[in-house]
Amino acid sequence: MTLRKFQIYRGDQETGTLINFETEVKEGMVVLDVIHKIQAEQANDLAVRWNCKAGKCGSCSMEINGKPKLSCMTRMNEYDPDETITITPLKTFPVIKDLVTDVSWNYTQNKRIKPVKLASEAKTEKGYVMYQEDVDRVQEFRKCIECYLCQNVCHILRDHDKKDVFIGPRFMIRVASLEMHPLDTEDRIPELKKEFGSGMCNITRCCTDVCPEHINLTDNGIIPLKERVIDRYYDPVTIIGRKIFGKKKKKLPPIKH
């Protein structure tokens, strides 16, 4: 066991500060273990959100030394023994208490997205049939655990607070999962351009970098959506073609890894 130093944010959205703590750390401990130890021994009222402790629920998102991470998947041996570890709540969302933030804004964005609308003519006597490659394409986006680390690191939301015009990378890939569904007939491109703020993203790939499920949000989701908006509203050849031949069926972009 070694004695380690920590700074943990205590307070709410209006008033809060970093409080110093020292505690012994055992081999194999993760940051969430340390928080629980400090909570049990030194700060019983320390607020922290967590659930599965297996990196699958997304509840324990926070910032560790300034980087958005899941505390249950961040091992203590990633840091130097003499390093002071700073633990703060997600910057993009209002602080309720200590390390717990109010992420309810995200639920509101999800409700704005049109649900799947399956093509009736695609149903056979065996039910709906899809190619495996089409299943794989949208299955990548379904791995999302809604930790909101991508929402937190997105500079449009984090630094510029443009929540009124951009739904964020998590919900861009939710739109992508529906738009790339080969049996879906709903059209979400107008909302993507006018309401969801697809043009706000400048493809820094910071959301992809922090995703604990290694979803390629940028290349497989956001960029193809931006291309569809461009094709619909700005490509003169496509615009003329649509006027002559009518609306084409959804075209699946190549999947990247």
Strand content: 15-25%
User: Using only CA atoms, what is the Rg?
Assistant: 22 Å
The number of distinct β-strands equals 9
Helix segment tally: 10
Detailed description of the structure:
This protein is α+β, with helices and mostly antiparallel strands and 257 residues long. Helix content is 33%, strand content 16%. It contains 10 helices and 9 strands. It has helices at 31-41, 104-111, 132-139, 149-153, 155-158, 169-179, 189-194, 206-210, 217-233, 236-245; strands at residues 2-11, 16-25, 61-64, 67-70, 85-88, 95-97, 100-101, 123-124, 127-128. A 5-stranded mixed β-sheet has the order 2-1-5-3-4. A hairpin with a 4-residue loop joins strand 1 and strand 2 (16-25). Helix 6 crosses helix 9 (217-233). The chain starts with a strand and ends in a 12-residue tail after the last helix.
Itemize the secondary structure elements and their pairings:
Layout: E1 2-11, E2 16-25, H1 31-41, E3 61-64, E4 67-70, E5 85-88, E6 95-97, E7 100-101, H2 104-111, E8 123-124, E9 127-128, H3 132-139, H4 149-153, H5 155-158, H6 169-179, H7 189-194, H8 206-210, H9 217-233, H10 236-245
Helix pairs in contact: 6-9
Supply database-style keywords.
257 residues; alpha+beta; 5-stranded mixed beta sheet; two-stranded antiparallel sheet; 10 helices; 16% strand; disordered C terminus
Task: Give a short overview.
The protein is α+β, with helices and mostly antiparallel strands and 257 residues long.
